[in-house]
Design brief:
268 residues; alpha/beta; four-stranded mixed β-sheet; 6 helices; 22% helix; elongated; Lipoprotein
Length: 268
């Protein structure tokens, strides 16, 4: 039976015309599915459904989503991220907590030491609307590449990338070109920054895909934009509730120790 599938030109180019036509005719496409974005059931025989192709270095996985959640698209991910997503789909890994109680960390190499960036997902009230936000704080000083001194250059490095100081938490940060937050299979995988040749590179990458709350994911899919706030080590701390996280952000802004930017949501 034909499916109500949307297959974008990019997805068609990756899977080929024959496979795309087979999907549209009902072959190899499930009638019912779990939306890769909102994780709720969908039915491609009853509602418009997007085909979403996750592409790694050696593996590609075709997933399905409500067309009202996200459009059909190709989502590039690392092979490790893709394998992790496959394990989460098959139930082979357990998801951590979510919301303000779901920090994750990944090592960022510096000269002779590694600093670890902690990321917490939470909803922040800005301009009378709850916005999906990432709050980033290292567990130690971040050295400038080539530097051997003890100085913490975390905020100066971000300012050079286009982040802006925050003086008022009630104002939306400006968009930053070339950056994006990668949400795949309903989990946060990476924060991407401009790379060489017009491509993107991972600025932060989760050891394991980070589960986010339903409210955070819904807000991110609605806005297609994520806010990122960053502060030096010891400024924010791990806050178990979003109201406490907001207070910590306001305190960091008052001290002149908070920078921010808005970036598009990549993937689902």
């Amino acid at each position: 039976m034909p499916r109500m599938l949307d297959v974008s030109d990019d997805v068609r180019a990756e899977i080929g015309d024959e496979e795309a036509d087979r999907l549209l005719a009902g072959g190899d496409a499930p009638g019912s599915y779990d939306c890769t974005s909102c994780r709720t059931p969908g039915d491609s025989e009853q509602e418009r459904t997007s085909t979403v192709l996750f592409v790694g270095e050696e593996t590609a996985v075709l997933a399905f989503a409500h067309a009202t959640c996200i459009p059909s698209q190709v989502v590039p991910v690392s092979e490790e991220q893709l394998q992790g997503a496959v394990r989460s789909i098959t139930g082979e890994d357990a998801a951590p907590g979510s919301g303000a109680e779901a920090p994750a960390a990944a090592p960022i190499p510096t000269n002779e030491r590694q600093a670890t960036l902690g990321i917490t997902c939470g909803l922040v009230l800005v301009e009378d609307d709850l916005r999906p936000a990432l709050v980033v704080e290292p567990d130690g000083p971040i050295a400038r590449p080539g530097s051997v001194g003890p100085d913490d250059d975390f905020l100066p490095l971000l300012l050079e990338q286009g982040f802006q100081p925050v003086s008022d938490m009630n104002k939306l940060p400006a968009m930053i070109p070339g950056w994006s937050a990668l949400l795949a299979m309903g989990k946060l995988h990476a924060v991407l920054q401009p790379g060489s040749g017009g491509s993107q590179a991972a600025w932060w990458q989760a050891h394991q895909p980070l589960a986010v709350s339903d409210g955070w994911r819904t807000a991110a899919n609605k806005a297609q934009t994520v806010l990122m706030y960053a502060a030096p080590t010891g400024t924010i701390g791990h806050q178990p509730r979003e109201d406490l996280m907001r207070q910590a952000l306001e305190g960091a802004a008052a001290q002149g120790k908070l920078v921010a930017a808005a970036m598009p949501l990549a993937g689902t």
